[in-house]
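To: structure subgroup
Subject: Chain for Friday's discussion

All,

I'm putting the inputs and outputs inline so they're searchable in the archive.
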Amino acid sequence: MKFFQISFIFLFSPLFFLKQFSLEAQVLCLGGECSNIPSEYQVLGNFAGPTLDRVYTNGFLRSMGENAVLQNLNSNQSGGQNVPSYRLGLGYTVARGQSKARDFYYENSELRNLPKQGVAASPSISFTANLSELFNSPYASRWNVTTHFFPYEFNEANIPFVKIRNTEVRGKVQNYGILFRYFPESSGFSFGFGLFNTHQDLYLSSYDRRPTQFRIDGDKRRWLGVNDLFYQSRIVSYTIDVKYNWTIGFLSIVPGLGFVYNHGYTSLQVSRYALISTRANPDDFTSMPSVIGIRLATRYDHVSSFGYGSLGFRFGQGNFSVTTEIMAGRDMQSANLSLNYQF
C-alpha cells in the first residue's frame, strides 16, 4: 500500500518536537486457524510494526499537518495593501509537501494504489475591514483585520492531484483564521499577527479484489478483506509576518516573510478485517473458516514551528482585483488565487 496524497491537508528549516507518541493495537481472531497464530505475531510480528513504523512515519504525519497549516494561512488572503473600508474575497488554495509515505508491508493489498504525497486544498471566503470603520480614531486607519472561513466536504472527484482506484474517499475541511495587519505610515511595509485553526478529517476505504500474501511465524498465508483509514488533524497556529508592497499602475507585487508556531495533534486509525487461509494451504479459505480483525491507532501530540517566504501579485481595476500568492519553505509550497471586491 502506498499512502494517500491528501493532507489538509504544505518552508525555511521547519522545527518539530514530538511531545507524545502513542500506539494502540488490537487484534481479534475468530475460527479454528486462530490457534495457529501466536499472540506475539498478531500484534508485534506482522501488524503494528510494519503498518505504523514503516508507512505512517513521524515525518509524513508532520508533513500532512504542516501542509494543512500553510494552506490555511494562504487562504486568509490578507494581502499587503491597506484596505480603506471593506473588502470581500473568494479564493481557492492548494498546498503540497515533499515528504512521502513509504511502501506498505502487504504490497499486494488494494491500498497499494493510493498516492503517497501530502496535499491540501480548499476554497475559502475572506472578509477584510479597516478598523477605522469600527473605531473612531485616526490611528485605527492603519489597521486591517481579515477573517476567512469555508466548510468544505470532498471526495476523490473534487480533490486535485489525486487519482485513487477502487477506494472510497471522503472528508471535510473546516479551516478558519483571523489576522490583524498594521501599516506604518508611508513606508510600504506591513506587519501581520494572526490566529488560525486547522480542522480536517479524511476517510479512506477499500476492499481486496484478490487475496493478499503475508507471513506468520515463517508460514505463508493469504487474507482477503476490507481496509479502512481515518486521518484527523486539529492544529491551532499563531503567526507573524512582514510584507512589502510595491505598486506600478494596476499591478502590485508583495514579497514577504513569516513565522508560524503550531500546537495540536494529528492522529491516524487503520483497521483491516479479513478471512485468513489455513496454515497447510494458503489458497484454502473454506475448510476451516477464520476471520481476523486488526485495529491500529496512533496519535502525535506535538508543537511545531516553521518559517516561510511569500510572493503575492495583485491586479486591480476599479473596485475589483485578482490576487495570487505563493508561499514556500523547505518542504512545502502553497498557491492561492482569489477574486476580491472592495466597497
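Points worth raising on Friday:
The first strand starts at residue 12 and ends at 31.
Residues 1-20, 103-111 have pLDDT under 50 and may be disordered.

D.
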